[in-house]
Design a protein that fits this description.
The protein is α+β, with helices and mostly antiparallel strands. The protein contains ten helices and 21 strands. It is globular.
Length: 444
């Protein structure tokens, strides 16, 4: 995310980064021990912690949001040096939606895969653990979106794009008439971008938000295709109220021809990673951008983690038949997993997720540095595809990120992202989501 800030804030940001870097390089051993001890304690006291949260929720509030931040125009931006970014969010007064009033049944789920995180984030080295057929999961389905009823229970966002993309988000009826959404013959939900050869200003696109909100959950998304190509900026993410007070969790995000997914959180001040070391955090990804997750203190970069897998985003993800992304938000923190199509654990396919068997997550933000119930609440899941905007447009001439060995400016011959998007509709036939299912699990 990006927020206009005075020059003094920039100096403070640099100072914060320097302090975080010093801590990460001199205290990794302490951080490792503290993190392990915290995880152990969490496993033994999750029930007590949950009861205390419910009793003292009004007291356990985050630091108050600075007036200049809460009233500012917030939107996302790239970080060209690292590829780090946030994502658009629903801004009070800037949203309009087409609502579909329907409570989706959480019964049978026609899906091949789902994913999760674990309380002990490095419990196993294998991503293909096979539990016994009699094993039961503590996670129970709260909501399920799949098959012919997929779009029931979502709001279609129709406001202006907070990330400054050149898209026109449209309502459900318009999207159906324009053939930009459908349930295809495979029973999957499809969300497209307009491919009219030339447009004067914006292209029609889709952004949807779950009507159901949740605080603490196991969110599972199975997709066989995501938007890709120069000019695209797709994301699957979740967001709370009064950004950034309610927190933001970017689960799937990237731009242009990138091949490695980036997961990021954005919060109020006070949330941080104790280290930038992947081994200390127990993750397979790489921390990018810094360890301070506060939107107001980092130019809205937040805490980002780039996946190691080159088939976790974009064309390679699609070529492999996609896969499963899972976000677990519990007392231990927030973790994100990625399972390629051929590495999906059997317990996920059986709708009985057993997170402790899943091995090392892509990303993990431990509760020790960022209490997940102080900095995150009342989230909705969101799909969107924007074009150009602050990230995809901002790195149009950039290289050096996995998958982007040659810039989009060089690949397309267009000097700007906007010129390319407006005049080359046929090049956006791959700019679509095809989703098998989204499921929200909770333990109670």
């Amino acid at each position: 995310m990006y927020l206009h800030a005075p020059a003094v804030l920039v100096l403070l940001i640099h100072a914060a980064y320097a302090d975080a870097s010093l801590f990460g390089t001199t205290s990794e051993s302490i951080a490792r021990v503290a993190t392990r001890a915290h995880r152990h304690a969490v496993k033994r006291s999750a029930g007590l912690a949950r009861d205390l949260r419910l009793s003292f929720r009004g007291i356990l509030a985050t630091d108050s949001q600075p007036a200049d931040v809460s009233n500012a125009r917030v939107y996302c931006v790239n970080s060209p040096s690292s590829g780090l970014t946030g994502n658009g969010t629903n801004i009070a007064g800037g949203n309009s939606t087409t609502s579909i009033s329907h409570s989706v049944s959480a019964t049978s789920v026609a899906t091949s895969s789902k994913g999760s995180a674990t309380g002990s984030k490095t419990a196993s080295a294998s991503a293909t653990a096979t539990p016994s057929a009699t094993a039961s999961s503590p996670w129970k389905i709260l909501e399920s979106y799949h098959g012919s009823s997929f779009f029931l229970g979502w709001d279609f966002f129709t406001g202006s794009d907070p990330t400054n993309g050149i898209v026109n988000y449209i309502d459900q009826q318009t999207a159906q008439s324009a053939n930009l959404i459908e349930i295809n013959s495979a029973g999957n939900a499809v969300m497209r971008v307009e491919t009219t050869p030339q447009v004067q200003n914006t292209r029609q696109s889709i952004r949807i938000t779950t009507q159901k909100t949740y605080t603490g959950a196991l969110l599972i998304m199975d997709s066989v295709h995501m938007p890709t190509g120069c000019g695209t900026w797709p994301a699957f993410w979740s967001n709370g109220p009064n950004w950034p007070a309610g927190g933001e969790i970017d689960i799937v995000e990237g731009v242009n021809d990138y091949t490695n997914n980036q997961a990021t959180i954005h919060t109020n001040p006070g949330c941080s990673l104790a280290s930038s070391s992947s081994s200390t955090l127990g993750i397979s990804g790489t921390v990018v951008g810094g360890t301070n997750c506060a939107a107001a203190q980092t130019g809205n970069q937040g805490c980002g983690v780039r996946a190691a897998q080159t088939n976790s985003f974009g064309a390679a993800f699609n070529k492999n038949g996609g896969g499963v992304y899972a976000m677990q938000w519990d007392d231990s923190g927030i973790a994100i997993y990625f399972f390629p199509r051929n590495q999906i654990p059997s317990d996920i396919a059986a709708n009985a997720p057993l997170p402790d068997n899943w091995g090392t997550p892509l990303a993990f933000w431990p509760a020790a540095g960022c209490n997940p119930f102080n900095f995150f609440n009342d989230h909705s899941a969101i799909f969107d595809t924007t074009l150009c905007g602050d990230w995809a447009g901002g790195v149009w001439s950039g290289t050096g990120v996995p998958g982007q060995d040659q810039s989009c400016a060089a690949l397309t011959g267009a000097s700007t992202c906007e010129a390319w998007v407006r005049n080359n509709g046929a090049n956006f036939t791959e700019a679509y989501w095809e989703v098998k299912s989204v499921q929200i699990y909770q333990t109670s």
